[in-house]
Fold these 3 entries.
Entry 1:
Amino acid sequence: MDLTGKLLVAMPGMGDPRFDHSVIYLVSHSDEGAMGLIVNKPAPGVSLADVLDQLESAPPSGGPLHGVHFGGPVETGRGFVLHSDEYCSAIHTLTIAPGFALTATLDILEDIAQGNGPESSLLMLGYSGWGPGQLEGEIAQNGWLTCDVPSGLVFGMTDDKKWAAALESIGIDPLGLSATAGHA
């Protein structure tokens, strides 16, 4: 089972407050583990200008103002840009699935700042990672639901609506979920 390009939707009561109501886009999933980016948790008070300032790069001039998201608790000082797949970095862009690509080099931040970046993007600090079999175990323990990416959810919806929209895309009413799991 390869979940690359799918969403993980946190179940209530999963036990880790960092992932409460999280929606994670899975960048990679294999027998060696998984990596994903939380797409609905903004990093309060952090902007593209702040990131460029830290990297001692030119400030934005002409591009849209971008906030930054908390991609996950692993390597929170490392940056990633999840973006639409029409953009390709001169250095390195990984195409994940139709409509989605990932770039983790400074040139994309500079392109975004200049208004020459991808049509759609989310800037992330940190990522979510799992070792071999760990994610599968968390799914089996009712920590996560998985689903295809509904059109417009990742790039076209406000962060506060993504969790409910992901659940509704698989026919689940968020108000009907319980924090306790049962077995039939």
Note: The chain has a mean pLDDT of 87.
Entry 2:
Amino acid sequence: MRIDGRDYRTIWLDADGRRVHVIDQTRLPHRFETIALDDLDAAARAIRDMIVRGAPLIGVTGAYGLALAAAADPRDAAILAAYETLLATRPTAVNLRWGLDRVRALLLATPEAGRAALAYAEAGRIAEEDVACCAAIGEHGAALIHAAAEKNPGRPVNILTHCNAGWLATVDWGTALAPIYKAARAGVPVHVWVDETRPRNQGASLTAFELLSEGVPHTVIADNAGGHLMQHGLVDLAIVGTDRTTRSGDVCNKIGTYLKALAAQDNGVPFYVALPSSTIDWRLSDGVRGIPIEERGAREVTHISGRTADGGVAEVQVTPEGSPARNWAFDVTPARYVTGLVTERGVCAASENGLKGLFPDLAG
């Protein structure tokens, strides 16, 4: 996607084919900076500290992390230790395990001398597959936006999203935002309601940054405004992403998604979830009971950073000194509140039969 006239992906290799470069998403939207990941520890830190985030991008970064580890030490013990280090960084998104499992299996079946090259090649394939997957999600989801435009000629299609499921959460295009980009580039008038997404403000910081860079009309709103907008007919459809989807169609996404789905159900607003098949956890049926929910540090709730009048970036405390805080990062929306799942193979019902219909080869 485009930033200041230049096309970027979120992760790429240096000219030497070894160092991994990523966009430092903790600096956005006020500063655009990239950093190099030189070794396993740097890759693990990038995932853990949310320098990179979003389920698909976490999976690709994990794959490259194993490649960095294999380049440093290709022995079995080192590969297995690196796998565990990377897997422990973020517990909720299933893509991380998926990417790591894929690379680890290849490495352990290959002589040590060829492991580093094989790991880099496989990580690169995973990245390219993610780009193609997200582009396909965009095409299938754009058809839903086209249909909404035909129902309401003469005005933009108003779309509500939550958190950031754009190209910053993937390698390129994104999941929930890919249909919006595809529709906008096809000339469909769209307008996006961007939830701020407390406490890390990924909507206000990242989704708004993306949409602004792409020239897509949008408005940032407080997290709790979505229900009000739906009650007054100002939302035509909602599209969100997911970090893990059960085989029954339950979706785990950024905290606050569940409340948006409830409001959408009450007001007859279609609620779609966009996801690559790598996000489906075929082992789980009940998302509420089965998906581990990451709890992050309380400081993300008690403090907030922003741009000051002189152009600097500062962090301030927003709670009384001594007030405790809790910070659950995700919640689960049961399948019954999801209108449809938008995948790389098409749109299906949020159900086991719906997913098996599109992915019989993966369902087992």
Note: The chain has two domains: 2-129, 139-363.
Entry 3:
Amino acid sequence: MKKFVLTSVFTAAIVAGTAGAAYASQYVAYEGPGFTGRSVVIDRCGVSNIPFNGSYKWYGDGQSGRMYNQPNAEGVAHFTLASNRNAEQRTPVGWKSIFIVC
């Protein structure tokens, strides 16, 4: 009986965690302008360095993103992407890091 209960609780926790992750804000950084080249999706809370600066898309789904012109979110935030709106820019950006507020 205990094994069944623990397994059920563990499974429920995984499902809840996965469902919650589906609704996180996402910053998609592209290598080239116009959303071309390689890309990376950044959607974890806290500080992330941005490897590509050719263009970006932001999908605001509950968390805001503070943008920094320095790596590791150092210095003053240059811009804040809204938690409830999408945004994009087809031309290069100077942002080097993001802090997703969760």
Note: The radius of gyration is 17 Å.
